[in-house]
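Class prep. Sample record?

___
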Amino acid sequence: MSKYKRIIIKISGEALSGKGSFGVNESETEKIAFQIKTLHEKGYEIGLVIGGGNIWRARNNGSVDRSTADYMGMLATVINSLAMQNSLDKLKVPVVVMSAIRVEKVAEPFVLRKALDSLEKGKVVIFAGGTGSPYFTTDTAGALRASEVQADVYLCAKNVDGIYDKDPRQFSDAKKYEKIGFMEVIEKQLKAMDITAMSMCMENNIPVLIFDCAENNSIINAAEGKKIGTIIQ
């Protein structure tokens, strides 16, 4: 039995596009939604934070000022959150989207007490709109929500299978860490997640698990505490 009960799962926007480089692939959202359904049926309290990189990558376009670009990215996360909500709805999983930016036509405003109430009542809560402010990544948004709801773990589903001492795509002798401390990640400047997110989880004593979203049943395995990815604690 997993030691985790309340979990926050960060899913990259790229995971929703599958082999494509842009947009939302419905079959990919359904694969992820099925894993969420499985965890929900096992009694986990689940919060989701989804990136927007499949629609808009702010830092790759210097023609738009940073604040505007970040707000465009937040809107992209709303689109992805609605896509995931739709897939969960089809599977009869109770779900609500709460957004840090006001889009009442499609999502509820984020209110912590309502989010906690929804989690306790067994609803999957999708946190959209990032932090609601520019200059923060969705990694940080996930760390913030994990801290606010006092999650047992922050699961980061990325396009890498863990943290390495150097880039495994460039160095064949790159070493993968199974476990590592927060300060070691920060001091060695290892590419795992941004420092703001890392520091927030460290201060609130929330372990972070970095793993590959593309691996079969990786979200289920991560939540159940199986040997996967790299744990930071």
Notes: The domain at 6-232 is CATH 3.40.1160.10 (Carbamate kinase).
